[in-house]
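forwarding from the other thread:

> can someone predict this with 6-O-phosphono-alpha-D-glucopyranose?

sure thing
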Amino acid sequence: SAAEKGGWSSFMRKEVAEQPDAVANTIRGRIVDGEVHIPELESFGDDELRGVRRITVVACGTASYAGQVAKYAIEQWARVPVEVELSHEFRYREPVIDDGTLVLSISQSGETMDTLMAVKYAREQGARTISICNTQGATIPRESDAVVYTHAGPEVAVASTKAFVAQITALYLFGLHLARVRGTLAPEALADALAELQAIPAKIETVLGQSERVAELAHWMADTRSVLFLGRHVGFPIAMEGALKLKELAYIHAEGFAAGELKHGPIALIEPGQPVFVVVPSPRGSANLHPKVVSNIQEIRARGARVIAIAEEGDAAVLPYADEVIRIPLAAPLFEPLLAVVPLQVFAMELSQAKGLDVDQPRNLAKSVTVE
Ligand code: G6P
């Protein structure tokens, strides 16, 4: 009803706008005196967490992209190998699970059948399980050894938005907890990471402030038949999530690629006028990925691509080659996904609207897939 939407024209619009709160509420109470504090994990003793040799993340859809983002952070901080697998693939391939394996499930609803089956299977094989979930008392958390809830609030629109940023937030808190217990991150680095996380809600608000420009872009592009998304490092799963949002909401063919793969195939798709969103890594990143992505932009531009760059404030290197630049505030590289995803969500939502589609209930999709 209109009242439930709180004055917004759609749940999607409301939920996109609620993202600063989704992150802030997921952090609330979990950083105490500059230290990460997750009482929900008490059933896992520190010794047990030190003994984890491998983390397998299981999830479907947008939740799996949250897992892919978190893989970069958890491996960097806690020095534990992390693999991310779609629940339905994991369950049916005789995965190697031993007592050093921690299975981390991610599900907004906590009811996705494939993810539930993956968790049950993992437990039967002797794995310990933690669930990241947005719905109190749902089935997946009940079937898990521990649950870290995201506090995004109820998500009604079928395509996930605010739950995604809340999932990354919860996974980052978990990764920092693990890093502290395992002693893999210096106290200053840990404090810096927590401060970065606490600064995210206000920065998302800043990104949302540009939504009108993104909306204009979407309205110009309402007839577009295909859109490509490029990213690398944590920008790679964001590229895939941007593509997924566009498929789900606007029924447009879209693919996300790792920018480093460009020469191995995707560049053959570039023809004059092809729109390409590029998630540009920070020029301040230690791995020096920025010039590599700028050179990818030059390569596709030379072949006529229409480049929409998502780049941090002050990054002037992209200006000569991009048709449009959407700015995100400065953040440490691992935290950029929480900002870069926002204009991609807004773009898909606005394009759906420009095409006169039902943004809250796209055709053929369900909010929670409770059958196999
Ligand atoms: C459906 C929804 C997606 C969601 C996925 C996983 O496909 O349309 O938005 O990402 O299920 O749902 P879950 O509740 O497990 O996060």
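The pocket of 6-O-phosphono-alpha-D-glucopyranose is lined by residues 60-63, 107-109, 112, 115, 158-160, 365, 367-369 (CB under 6 Å). thats all i got for now
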